[in-house]
Amino acid sequence: MTLRAEEIVCPTEAGLYCAPGDFHIDPLRPVARALVTHGHSDHARPGHGAVMATRQTLDIMAIRYGEEFTASRQIAEGPVRIGDVTVSFHPAGHVLGSAQILITPDSGPRILISGDYCRTPNPCCQAWEPVACDIFITEATFGLPVFRHPDPLAEAGRLIASMAEFPERPHLVGAYALGKAQRVIALARAAGHLAPIAIHGALKRLCDYHIEQGIDLGPLVPATDPGEAQLVLAPPSAFASPWVQRFRDPVLSYASGWMTVRARARQRGVELPLVISDHVDWPQLTQTIRDLGPEEVWITHGTEDGLLRWCEMNGIPARPLRLIGYEDEPE
Amino acid sequence: MKAFARLLERLAFTPGRNAKLTILAHYFQTTPDPDRGYAASVLTGELDLRQVSPSLLKRLAADRVDEQLFRLSYDFVGDLAETISLLWPGEASGPNAEVSVTEAVTLMNETGKLALPGVIADLLDRLTPPERLALLKLATGNLRVGVSARLARTALAMGTPRSVDEVEEIWHGLTPPYLPLFHWLEGGDPPAPAEAPFRPVMLSTPVTPGELAAFDPTDYLAEWKWDGIRVQAVAEGQNRRLYTRTGEEIGAAFPEIIAAMDFEGAVDGELLIRRGGEVAPFADLQRRLGRKAVSAKMRETHPAALRLYDILTWQGEDLRPLPLDQRRARLEAAVFNPHRIDLSPLLPFRTWDDLASLRAAPHEPVIEGVMIKRRDSAYIAGRPRGPWFKWKRDPMVVDAVLLYAQAGHGKRSGFYSDFTFGLWDGADLVPVGKAYFGFTDEELRELDRFVRKHTVQRFGPVRQLAPALVVEVAFEGLNASPRHKSGLAMRFPRISRIRWDKPAAEADRLETLRAML
């Protein structure tokens, strides 16, 4: 029997649900069986009966939530049969371990759930791969034409230039603990900053895990004892805490795709906004839809109105799922 | 333009004055002539570029971008120039991609009004997004980088053998791109001295009654603090110039003042709108500010006048080293055009309490407090602490209820930051004003959360709120206003305190506000 797309995947309050396979994708609340695209806390939550994800995403969930984060785990390798569908995981280029999930029914449209994804090369994770599909379920975090992320290496260059212009001021870069922090470190290295980099305690275990996975981050020291380190990374929430008081006249910086918009940077009180994103920007987002040529586009979350308009202009059927609970770009 | 765009971006995000100076000085030291000179002229507001209107920019964008995508983007970004710079299609490339500040400025100055949109579109095609923003900020004359002309001149002097005061005294003899200035700053010969130059002004610091008690009243003179703008009127040789306290020349907007400056010297005073003997409120003066030229009708309905309180030079003699007592005597002995220029009277007082009573009940609403100046003070540039004090009138306050909120644009886009508040009139709440500031960034976030939780209805971008939060609103004055439903208009209202503790029913009543009129 041929299934319609809506019968294979539908939005529910707990997130996307696949009825013929009886599992949720990136569920927002505890469920019996979860398939998880990547380790960011709004997608990967603890408390599910069973979790299937890439080995690295499972490792990351165990680091964040403890080994007991789920009753049973399954590493996603190759196509796997679940109920009446076949699922497979494909690199998404977003953060270490991130994947897109393809659901193939025996008869009916193939559905690709992008999770969060990025097509800019990133030394910290496997590159995004195009996956043929009929229904493309995409995020639209940066779903407006104003979002054209600059070359991330040039952004790292701005950071290095500022450190040279203000050699006596520590530069504190706010970066999410999973992915963004390691990416900023790798970019700073690529831009020629070889000195030790200080990291906030909240970043340590995930940095260690990246190093274990063979990603070269260079010398790291704890921010509580930074020595001569002029570059310091911390989760952005640390900027509002007394932790930041140990640094004298710091330059506060923040690495995020939102830094494109000045008002966003000002709201954060950032002195050096760095436009470094783990998400597709507008040209990549629209190019991906062109490349995949799906019959329909479903949009999970983000600034979907812009992408909906673009799909309309390009004659591609599209609809918003308006899933609530995924952050724009998490911290 | 790349370095200039980077400069503007760094300045826009750098709050610290010293850090701004470092960035500026570095730019001036590493940028070649004539680009650095044109950049300096833009930062000091000296360059008169042909201005482009927001509607023209919108039309330019409409030719290139889908209208709906543009509107969504503009709503999100909140700033027109920024939106266009970000979504202007295409990447800068090709041999033409490098545009210097000099080229951009020259093109914009030499292009006629009709051809200007095409020239700007061509430039946008050749630039990267940060450069586009810099160009559009130039074109709209709205840099918003938090750099005063004085700060820019301070940066010019940094790392050179010259001081900023030296730069300011010659500044008004110079024109962009200031090649002789840079030559002089780098150790060369000085440029020709300016005619009728600006003299850096002396400023006051705030004072409290407690602090005053430590001083002997007989050591001080006192005057009203007028609610106009501080100006320096300089008539030397053939030149007559009217400067603001930051050294911007505004004479062109006040030709009747220039015409009345039939003296030889430099005097310090307040620019006011005066009809007969009566000084008009600041709002009237505001209508004449920021203009390049002024209509005959405006000169008639809003006549400007000078009220002097100090004298810096007179007939070639520099009086600034003299004590204030003696300068005041010289000022009183000098003769000025009686129609346009008079003196700010000295206030009679023996004790600080005398002065406090005068301050509490000024005879004209346009007085915003008193100035207290040491009799023996020389005229010193800057804001020395001690010789001159300002003792402003206390603001008026009411406790009002938040009624509506609207998200801010620019810095606050995405935050509900613009509030309409009201007072009780019988059982109803009547809107009495709007306030956009007074709160901290942390309070802004709390207010934003409050708005989102207490919205009862939406009218487009405006949210109507459940009448649940009381704010203390401070304001500087109150006028009767038939245009407002309440019949009252506050001057300079701001939220001085958020009264999370106070029930809405206990907010003030409209009668209370009316009684303050």
TrEMBL record, chain A:
Domain of life of the organism in this record?
Answer: Bacteria
Select a single GO molecular function from the record's annotations and give it. RNA endonuclease activity
Q: What InterPro entries does its record include?
A: MBL, RibonucZ/Hydroxyglut_hydro, Xnuc_lig_assoc
Q: Please give the name of this protein.
A: Beta-lactamase superfamily domain protein
UniProtKB/TrEMBL annotation, chain B:
MF terms in GO: ATP binding; DNA binding; DNA ligase (ATP) activity; metal ion binding
The reaction(s) catalysed by this protein are: ATP + (deoxyribonucleotide)n-3'-hydroxyl + 5'-phospho-(deoxyribonucleotide)m = (deoxyribonucleotide)n+m + AMP + diphosphate
Q: Which PROSITE patterns match?
A: DNA_LIGASE_A1 (PS00697), DNA_LIGASE_A3 (PS50160)
Record bears the keyword Metal-binding? yes
Question: A biological process (GO) annotation for this entry?
Answer: DNA repair
Is ATP-binding set as a keyword in this record?
yes
The protein's UniProt keywords, in alphabetical order, are: ATP-binding, Cell cycle, Cell division, DNA damage, DNA recombination, DNA repair, DNA replication, Ligase, Magnesium, Metal-binding, Nucleotide-binding
Q: Which domain of life is it from?
A: Bacteria
Tell me where in this chain the ATP-dependent DNA ligase family profile domain is found: 306-425
Q: Coiled-coil regions in this chain?
A: none
EC number(s) given by UniProt: 6.5.1.1
- Family annotation (PANTHER family): DNA LIGASE 1/3 FAMILY MEMBER, DNA LIGASE-RELATED
Protein name in UniProt: DNA ligase (ATP)
